[in-house]
Amino acid sequence: YIEDLRKIAAKNKIFKSYIGIGYHPVILPSVIQRNILENPGWYTQYTPYQAEIAQGRLEALLNFQTVISDLTAMDIANASLLDEGTAAAEAMAMFFALRPKEKKNANVFFVSNECFPQTLDVLKTRANPIGIELKIGDPRNIDLTDDVFGILVQFPAGNGEIRDYSELFTQATEKNIFKVVAADLLSLTLFKPPGEFGADAVVGSSQRFGIPMGFGGPHAAFFATKEEYKRSIPGRIIGV
């Protein structure tokens, strides 16, 4: 049976992927694979009626949340979403619901034209039914009018450029505008995390951390935000 499967699998043609835009060929170090992902301590039950994998899963998710909070410099993170586009759309919807009284009529969400095209597509789909108007443009030239309730930028940008959004975010804060950053997790090990330059939410994909491309995804997304929004965060949070 296994021989037959091998023969079928041998017919696959393996090509290099040049898709880019948020997907990267990655290496999963074998020491992490063996000692964490394949560690029997996560999934062996110690009594016949208790599936220890449930406890292992909770611990793994708690570790995931901790890493995300740490790298993004945000207060809390959830136990993942479907992909980066979904996470960005969830942030948009969350902040639309959280608009302060003085912004109750604001319905414009500004999105950087340097965001990944698949993220823009999901945002367009999700914005329309709930009455959000998307404005897509250059993040270096944003007109923060009174009808804007939130902005989304890509860090680093879709073309690889690394921008400093501190000044933009300061202006946005003065006008009660929410700031969302779609970030590359691995880059945050080197760059200033969005939590330190004023982000209200940080979203993105965790594919960079050793997950194969899998013909384009989806891969677990991350969603990190401030403590004050914990009752509105999408998905679930694993507590200690």
**Main beta sheet, described?**
7 strands, mixed
Share of residues in helices: 25-40%
Shape: globular
Oligomer: single chain
Separation, N- and C-terminal Cα atoms: 44 Å
Q: Give me the number of helical elements.
A: 7
The class by helix and strand makeup works out as: alpha/beta
The overall strand count is: 7
Helix and strand sequence: HHHHEHEHEEHEEE
Low-pLDDT residue intervals, each spanning 5 or more residues: none
C-alpha-based Rg, rounded: 20 Å
Strand content: 15-25%
Mean pLDDT: 91
Indicate the topology.
Layout: H1 2-9, H2 30-37, H3 40-43, H4 52-72, E1 76-77, H5 84-97, E2 108-112, H6 117-127, E3 133-137, E4 148-155, H7 166-174, E5 178-183, E6 201-205, E7 221-225
Parallel strand pairs: 2-3, 2-4, 4-5, 5-6
Antiparallel strand pairs: 1-7, 6-7
What would your notes on this structure say?
Helix content is 31%, strand content 15%. It is an alpha/beta fold. The chain has a seven-stranded mixed beta sheet, sandwiched between helices. Strand 2, helix 6 and strand 3 form a beta-alpha-beta unit. Helix 5 runs parallel beside helix 6. The relative contact order is 0.19. The model has no long low-confidence stretch (mean pLDDT 91).
